[in-house]
Each structure stands twice: as structure tokens, then as C-alpha cells.
Amino acid sequence: xxxxxxxxxxxxxxxxxxxxxxxxxxxxxxxxxxxxxxxxxxxxxxxxxxxxxxxxxxxxxxxxxxxxxxxxxxxxxxxxxxxxxxxxxxxxxxxxxxxxxxxxxxxxxxxxxxxxxxxxxxxxxxxxxxxxxxxxxxxxxxxxxxxxxxxxxxxxxxxxxxxxxxxxxxxxxxxxxxxxxxxxxxxxxxxxxxxxxxxxxxxxxxxxxxxxxxxxxxxxxxxxxxxxxxxxxxxxxxxxxxxxxxxxxxxxxxxxxxxxxxxxxxxxxxxxxxxxxxxxxxxxxxxx
Length: 288
Ligand SMILES: [Zn+2]
Known about the structure:
Mycothiol_biosynthesis_MshB; binds zinc ion; alpha/beta; 7-stranded mixed sheet; zinc; 3-stranded antiparallel sheet
């Protein structure tokens, strides 16, 4: 339940008129892919809302002491991750947060081909139109000019990320306020440069992968580069808040696979809908 106090806070903060909603599949995705962008626009005074579609119940668990929370044992990971997400939100300073359809409505479907997709509340098994309507209701409430989600491949192919893309592309045209839709992507050049820096740094505590091991988008396709250097420390704090999912190292982080991922000084986007003029370095650039 959102209390009246929180609604009051929502109204008072984010008063510069710019409003953005970022749609993510699981707790941690918001910080990994768009943490710097969230922190930057929130710090500047924009109204920034993260929508999370599932509780991430099927995630791997890094700390051994927490492994019994998993879907294979206590099945309490979703509730635990909601607290991690709230801590990440405090680190990033976002204005508001919503769970699609209410907290716990849709369950993490797991990686492609796993039985968790058969769960009756699995996000990928739900009715797409119903989910798009749930998102449209959030957009109608918050009236963002800008909406952000993944590309049609979901960034790296996770079925829940693809579904988040699908419902966002269905909902955004139904919301009168939305002027631009962006897809969050990883810039090939930024990742390649970041990995080279990690190799030069020596032991970072994780395995530094080959350039082509991480999913990236060619820079010719990137339309929008958001400088996050002044807010990168908040992104690291938010990543650290997701302790079941993320290990933070020097200038990088790793998921349970132990593969180092760099944290570039910018986040990259592809404009999927709306006017391109002014969007080169600012999600809101050139909008009324
Ligand atoms: Zn995810």
C-alpha cells in the first residue's frame, strides 16, 4: 500500500516538470542498466518512477548465508529482494516506485526453458493485454513525457525482459502524455573500453571476459548518451544494495556468474519512438 505520506512526497518532489517512467523486469535491472540515469534526473529535480514487473523470485543467490531463501528452498527471495530494491531506490534517490499490477502480482519466469515459466503467476504466462493495461494505468497516473524499457531482445534475451519490452511498447501509445520511448542498451565501444581498463587494472576479483561475451549494441545504433559520471557513485551504492544478486568490485560488478562488467561513465539508449532532435545527450532534450 502506498501511504498518503508517500503520495504527498511524490507530489512535492520532482517539481521541474520533467517526468520519466522506467519499466524493468526484476529488482536489480534498474540499477544495472539505468542506475546512473535515474540518479541524475532525480538529482536534477525531475520526477523519476521505476516500475518493476516481478519480484525476481527465481534469481540466483550469491551470499551462501542467504541461499536457503531461494525458490528451491524457502522461496522467500522475492520478499527479500523487494527490500534490496527499496534500498537501491534510496541510494538512487528516485521519486516513486510501482510494482506492475501490485507487489507480487507477477512472478519471475526464470531463464528461458526453465519450469518456472509454467507457474500460474509467471510474468511471461500472463495476459499481455492485461499487463499492458496495468502499465497504462501507471502511465496515466504519473503522466511521463519519457518512458524507458529494453529493446526487443530484452537486452540479453531473458523472457521477462522481452515481456517488459512488449507491454511497454503496447502501453506507451495508449498514454497521452508520452512523447518519447527509449530502449536501454550497452554501447559496444563503452563496454570494450571498460573491459580494457579492467584488464589493465590487474586482478579485479572477477573474471574479465572477452569483448564479445557481454551483449552490446553497435554504437551506430545508439541515439542517446547520458553522462552519469557525477552520479556513478550512487549507481555503485544501488548495485551494492542488491547483495543477493550483485558483487561490487573496483570500477566493476559481477552477477552470480562471476563475470566482471564495467560501469561506464555514460548510459546508452536507442530512441524507439518520438522526436530525435535534442535527444543526443538528454532523454528530455528538445521536448516542450
Ligand atoms: Zn532482469
